[in-house]
Amino acid sequence: xxxxxxxxxxxxxxxxxxxxxxxxxxxxxxxxTIRHDLETLQQYPSVTAQYAFRKQTILDALxxxxxxxxxxxxxxxxxxxxxxxxxxxxxxxxxxxEDLQKGYSGQxxxxxxxxxxxxxxxxxxxxxxxxxxxxxxELEPIARISGFALIERRSIFHALNQKAVARRVxxxxxxxxxEVNLIVAHMGGxxxxxxxxKGRVVDVNNGLDGEGPFGPERAGTVPAGDLVSLCxxxxxxxxEIMNMLVGKGGLVGYLGTNDAVKVEKMIEAGDEKAKxxxxxxxxxxxxxxGAASAVLAGNVDAIILTGGLAYxxxxxxxxxxxxxxxxxxxxxxxxxxxxxxxxxxxxVLRGEEKEKVYPSGTFATATVL
Length: 369
Ligand SMILES: Nc1ncnc2c1ncn2[C@@H]1O[C@H](COP(=O)(O)OP(=O)(O)O)[C@@H](O)[C@H]1O
Ligand SMILES: CCCC(=O)OP(=O)(O)O
Prior knowledge:
This is Probable butyrate kinase. This protein is of the alpha/beta class. The protein contains 13 helices and 14 strands.
């Protein structure tokens, strides 16, 4: 019997780019990254306000490639800051759209993934899905304790790519994902380092507005007392501080760009500040990997470096030089997110997996104390 063919449009809005893919079953027929410079995104007061711009960007890109939307079977977007949920493929529904629009767990470009998928799919009368959103939460109770009783640690990370790449590496090692311990550092606009213990991400930094290494546009962990003093200095509104942590933090704050390629050019041209800051970002990633190795009690089968920054040869070398005593380091530059979105949708379209209904898979991030 001939295999049924599904054509899936996948949409991945990141903090510095919009990535789209069109897949005939697992086979990519188009994969495109549209990078957005800082000035373009800063025109918009919020992520939600970028909706029309990102939608037009996608439709223009598909039009340029001569792709006929009426041939699509489904649209699948990267899921955003919803309620904490278990991993899997979810059908986009009204409750999800509402939570994405208000940013139930915060603001991030991925909130637009489900919304854009829903809008494009509804006009075509086809289903819209999200897969492994950034709020996938598999933290162990011990990892939830922050040290400050009023605040619990949260799992907000590049779940889709971390899991997809981890599965791929486990396969390369001849083992199942559920059998291995891996540390995955996804280094995009934000940076997250996950401790994957036998198929579950038992600890990971909240890469949005919380903790961990600074990234191209995010501050990561900052000294708490000094941050509190800044908040109450009377010099800044709340939104200004949040913007300095997310969007204008990290490389943007120090060097005025979120583009690591530009930073590398600045370094080549002899810019000592750029050199120090770029090295500090690698240093902080290495430190976080060291912390994750302690979470796994040193039982680490491999360390994986992935995301856009993993293309940076010197950057990657500086990390490897500090962590290769822990385990072998495998570099997967870029990400597998478009493919992972298509595969998640396919599993449901083919009936291999049941679609999950949001928010019924939601589980409390149970306050442990
Ligand atoms: N060839 C490269 N060398 C160094 N850095 C790169 C390269 N390509 C992309 N990057 C950097 O990776 C970062 C974006 O990573 P990406 O995973 O695409 O982020 P996001 O999905 O969050 O938009 C940017 O700082 C970008 O400049
Ligand atoms: C919110 C965690 C995911 C994240 O930071 O994604 P980007 O690097 O694409 O901004």
